[in-house]
Amino acid sequence: MAEKIKKVPMRLCVGCQMMKPKKDLIRILKEADGNILLDFTGKKSGRGAYLCKNEACFAAAKKGHRFERSFGCCVSDNVYEEMSHALQTELARPSDNLS
Asked: Which residue(s) pair with 22 in the sheet?
């Protein structure tokens, strides 16, 4: 009997517009009350957009107003600053996946 091949969920990065495995991306979340935040677990409820784990994709998404387009609302500079700070904090952490 042939083994089942598990399908890898793919998502589109709003920064570089490339399809990548979901586990390699960070989810940007718009909650029902309108708050926009980074969801590193990928499990919170709300509208999501995905972003590569690098500053270049974040800058491209911000410059192209891609978060506004994904969420259908204006994103304030304060939210961008909070997202940038959270992303930098996450990137500064040592990776747990190192062998």
From this structure: none
User: Two tokens at 16?
Assistant: 């570089």
pLDDT tens per residue across span 54-98: 999 999 999 999 999 999 999 889 989 988 998 888 888 776 554
Taking a C-beta distance cutoff of 8 angstroms, is the pair 58, 83 a contact?
Answer: yes
Q: Comparing C-alpha atoms, which of 65, 48, 59 is closest to residue 84?
A: 59
What sign results for the dihedral spanned by CA atoms 36, 42, 45, 51? positive
Backbone angles phi and psi of 77, in degrees to 5: -60, -35
pLDDT digits (tens, 9 = 90+) for 11-61: 999 999 999 999 999 999 999 998 998 888 888 999 999 999 899 999 999
User: What DSSP character marks residue 25?
Assistant: E
Quote the CA–CA distance of 58 and 53 in Å, as a whole number: 8
